[in-house]
Amino acid sequence: MKTKLLVWLCLMPCLRLSAQEAEPAFMPQGVQVRSTMLGIGHLNALDTYLSPVDYRGTALRFLRENSRMTRRFHGRLSVQHMLSGYAAYASPRSEEGDELLAMWQWNATWHYHLPLNRRLLLMAGAGTELQTGFAYTFAGSNNPAQARLSGRLAGSVAAIYSVDLFRRKSFVRWQVDAPLLGLMFSPEYGESYYELFSLGHHGHHACLTWPFSAPTLVSHISLEWPLRANTFLRVGYLMDIDQRQPNHLKQHEWSHTVLLGYTKRLRILP
Amino acid sequence: MKLHFPSLRAFSGRLRALRRAASRAILYIIGSSFLLLAPLSCVDEDEFDNSPRGNFEALWRTLDEHYCFFPEKERLYAVDWQAVHEQYGAYIQDEMTREQLFDVCARMIRELRDGHVNLTSSFNTARYWDWQEQAPLNFSDSLLRLYLGTDYRLSCGMRYKILPDNVGYVYVPSFDVSIGSGNLSAMFTHLSLCRGLIVDVRNNGGGLLTSAQALAESFINEKQTGGYMSHKTGKGHTDFSSPIAIELKPSTGMRWQKPVVVITNSAVYSAANSFVCYMKQLPRVTVIGQKTGGGGGMPFTMALPNGWKLRFSASPMYDKAMQSIEDGILPDHVMNLQSSDFHEGKDTMIEQARRLLTE
Questions:
Q1: Which of A13, A58, A152, B274 has its CA 20 to 30 A from that of A245?
Q2: Residue A131's beta-bridge partner residues?
Q3: What does the alpha-carbon distance between residue B245 and residue B227 come to, in Å, rounded to a whole number?
């Protein structure tokens, strides 16, 4: 009961509900929902391989999302492809010795649709993630940079709520992804990249990740407001809590990003 | 007897209700799991305050968890790192100035007697240079000028020339610059008619390990082990990986096949120390001079809360016999610069090397 209440509290943020019962088209068959968003936000990064101090800075984020319904499970399964990336410039508290981060991620997620009523669609599913990137400190000597490479299986829940906003049928979308099992690359605790690449050391570089070693959560809430028949303005907030503890190292990138973009609903030709 | 069958419609309705209930249950389970995931512990490091105490503790702990020579320093110099904390921690006070804090930290890291352990601030660099400052350098740049003159060749920082007795001489002051096989081939082509080669690395404080390796690989014809390297696998003072061989592969360019004399002194450190380690084991190579300064640990750099940079040895290196090279390498022939030779404008070591190569 508490969970239900929490879900409802999260999904009903002070929006005017329509008294009329219109048929919402969350994601109709034969339509591809394509979003492009750009965002800016705050990032807090830590990598004890590079330095034991936190780096805080600004991140610019790009997000491209394609979703469509499939015909599987009686047409209740949708597939979502997401390409996202960010570049960030961060400084430690002392503001001496900055850090540059760049990350690129591709997700493919399959959601099973469970419409609760005509306004609310709940979705649950799973997907795969591939992530690559790097962190570079301007102060390091033999440990100036750290590479990121990981592949993960993730669980995903999402909800779409149809709401009339300024007399236009809009959609509030909330999606939470959490990697559940994966593999990531990491040098060993005090291992230099010289040993890795010049000497060809093959140590424990493929690390298993799961929620207790890499508690990661991505929450994305957005509002889609129609500009034209098939074009929506999309405003969103993305919370990306990405954490890992490979080989006794500690790494995190916590970011909070405000996103702005558009969504197009394109009819797929049969 | 009349059997009662529920109508198909009712059955279908119940099935739908059941499916709906099951779907909701699955959703609630997944949703609850996510809500449970959210408060999972943050992966974070205890961040020390930017105060004298906070910076001192950050310095001590970073070394405690990452420095690689504690077992060796304990054996050679009886360094007890916990006792060092108690000793120098007693000097830390909230109202002390940054210069005073730096002084305490500098004295603390000197306990490790490691030239690779430095603390760098905007106003000073804490260091341990006894290995070169407390020993005679046996090197004179004035004498070097007499040998090199002004018409020497210069490539990648290496100064080379053919001496009057047809002996090649190359002075390598640093490995800071990347050395390519093309550079080495050009140098060896120029020196190819010489009877032998003197490689003088005196005062070479190191640089790129790959450059030291590239130069050493010009003197071998077969792949061989130059030494070993290890790294820390955890925070414990003895958490090390099994050593991995540093393989020297013959240079793809021109390779030197004649006798070589390497000249060292106490200021040979870090990558230059590794170069001497690689060269000493080669059959046609003789090392003369003094024991090198050491520096057999690859350094990492990390920051303190106030922005001071801490450099420390992170990965220990060993010679082919798995002996640590942190404390320096003894030459085949120990010799010093003689003042009588100096007054005659002669470098004792270069003269001895010439004799070894011409006799």
A1: A58
A2: A105, A150
A3: 6
Residue A32 has pLDDT above 70, yes or no: yes
Of A134-138, B39-43, B259-263, minimum mean pLDDT range = B39-43
Q: What are the residue ranges of helices labelled H in A187-249?
A: 193
B50-53, long-range: CB < 8 A, 24+ apart: B50/A93, B50/A94, B50/B305, B50/B306, B51/B94, B52/B92, B52/B93, B52/B94, B52/B96, B52/B101, B53/B92, B53/B94
Question: Which residue of B43, B239, B298 is in closest CB contact with A245?
Answer: B43
Model pLDDT for residues A215-263, shown as the tens digit of each residue: 999 999 999 999 988 899 999 999 999 999 999 999 999 999 999 999 9
Chain A nearest C-alpha distance from B231 (Å): 5
Q: What is the Cα–Cα distance from B68 to A142, expressed in whole angstroms? A: 14
CB B249 within 8 A of CB B278: no
pLDDT digits (tens, 9 = 90+) for A145-172: 999 999 999 999 999 999 998 888 899 9
Domain boundaries, chain B: 52-128, 141-297+318-358
Q: Which of A46, A93, A248 sits opposite B44 (nearest CB)?
A: A46
pLDDT category of residue A267 using cuts at 50, 70 and 90: confident
Reading the block at residue B190, the tokens are: 């120029």
B52-128: which CATH topology? Transcription Regulator spoIIAA (3.30.750)
Task: Check CB contact of A257 with chain B, cutoff 8 Å.
Answer: no
Of A168, A96, A98, A148, give the one whose Cα is nearest residue A252.
Answer: A148
Side-chain-facing half-sphere of B347: CA atoms under 13 Å: 25
Distance in Å, alpha carbon of B312 to nearest chain A alpha carbon: 10
Where are the alpha helices (H) located in A64-145, listed in sequence order? 72-75
Q: Does A197 touch chain B (CB under 8 A)?
A: no
Tell me the ipTM for this assembly: 0.83
- Please judge whether B31 and A157 are an interchain contact, meaning their C-beta atoms are less than 8 angstroms apart: yes
CB interface of A with B, residues 145-164, below 8 Å: 155, 157
Task: Kindly state the helix (H) or strand (E) to which residue A131 belongs, with its residue range.
Answer: strand A120-137
CB of A77 within 8 Å of a chain B CB? The answer is no
In this predicted structure, the answer to whether residue B110 has a pLDDT above a threshold of 80 is yes
What is the dotted CATH code of the domain comprising A39-90+99-267? 2.40.128
Asked whether B303 and A53 are in contact (CB, 8 A), the reply is: yes
Answer yes or no: CATH 3.90.226.10 is held by domain B141-297+318-358: yes
Query: What is residue B3's DSSP assignment?
Result: -
B241:A142 CB<8 A: no
Question: Helix or strand or coil: residue A198?
Answer: helix
What is the pLDDT averaged over residues A89-111? 94
Q: What tens digit of pLDDT does each residue of B315-354 get? A: 999 999 999 999 999 999 999 999 999 999 999 999 999 9
Size of chain A in residues: 270
Which residues of chain A from 116 to 145 reach within 8 Å of chain B, CB to CB? Answer: 116, 122, 124, 139-143
